[in-house]
Write a structure and sequence with these properties.
Helix content: 25-40%
CATH class of the largest domain: Alpha Beta
Radius of gyration: 22 Å
Strand content: 15-25%
Order of helices and strands: HHEHEHEEEEHEHEHEHH
CATH architecture of the largest domain: 3-Layer(aba) Sandwich
């Protein structure tokens, strides 16, 4: 039997419920500083890409500097709407929604003492049986089992442990590794005069993909939808690949379905 009061109440509740995809005009993006990706003057790849992606949906991006691990935690008091990138989820994550496509594809390098390897390592199989120091997420991102690597606190620590012989290899994003070595090498060699840096080599051992995330909330779900729709709009406008290529990065493939 038709119940007018109940129908009116339901319509009232629906009208009062927040339609997040329509209400959102500004989001907070928290990020660490990664040269070439996020810059203080907002000219990095992520800076330009994320700003233009949300602009396609009429959303303004407010960028805040934040340590990476904190930015992706999405704690109860967090005001962060958007963060990343993180490695691809292997199961449903209770704390975040993950984009269906990566924001960045990057090679992973191994820094190693040449005497500890019969040949240059080219994949994770070549690292088997070795003591591998990994920066945060890196071992998992190329498919290594947890017991096959040691995830250390900082990139510098991984580099120094390998340089001083406590690890056989240090693995990291290729560009990040180069920056770490350039920054830490002079002081490291000054502290250990018996270390010959010419004994160390680098090689590519895998590739990883990085994904953006939003909190596991109704607003977070709506922000992720805006991100996905905005990215596809950039692709249709022929701006997506152009942004990557203008900064020397390989654009990921976007499924437009």
């Amino acid at each position: 039997m038709f119940n007018l009061p109940r129908v009116m109440l339901a319509l009232l509740l629906l009208s009062c419920a927040p339609i997040y995809a329509e209400d959102i005009t500004r989001i907070t993006w928290a990020t660490d500083h990664w040269p070439g990706l996020t810059e203080a003057n907002n000219t990095g790849l992520y800076d330009v890409l994320i700003r233009n992606t949300f602009a396609q949906q009429g959303v303004v991006v407010y960028k805040v500097d934040m340590p990476f691990k904190r930015s992706v935690k999405f704690g109860a008091t967090s005001k962060v709407d958007f963060a990343g990138g993180v490695i691809k989820d292997t199961a449903v994550n209770p704390k975040h929604y993950q984009a269906p496509f990566p924001i960045l594809l990057s090679p992973v390098s191994a820094f190693y003492h040449s005497a500890r390897f019969a040949r240059p390592p080219k994949n994770i199989e070549d690292l088997a049986g070795k003591k591998v120091c990994s920066s945060f997420q890196m071992g998992a991102s190329i498919g290594m089992a947890k017991e096959d690597y040691i995830e250390v606190r900082t990139k510098s620590q991984a580099f120094l442990m390998t340089l001083y012989g406590r690890c056989d290899a240090y693995i990291d994003d290729r560009d990040e590794m180069l920056k770490v070595i350039e920054r830490d090498k002079p002081a490291a060699l000054a502290n250990k005069e018996n270390v010959n840096f010419n004994d160390f080599k680098r090689s590519t051992v895998g590739h990883t993909a990085w994904y953006m995330v939003t909190p596991k909330t109704p607003r977070g779900k709506a922000v992720m939808k805006l991100y996905v729709q905005g990215t596809k709009a950039l692709v249709r406008a022929n701006q997506f690949n152009a942004i990557y290529q203008s900064r020397g990065f390989e654009p990921p493939t976007i499924n437009m379905n």
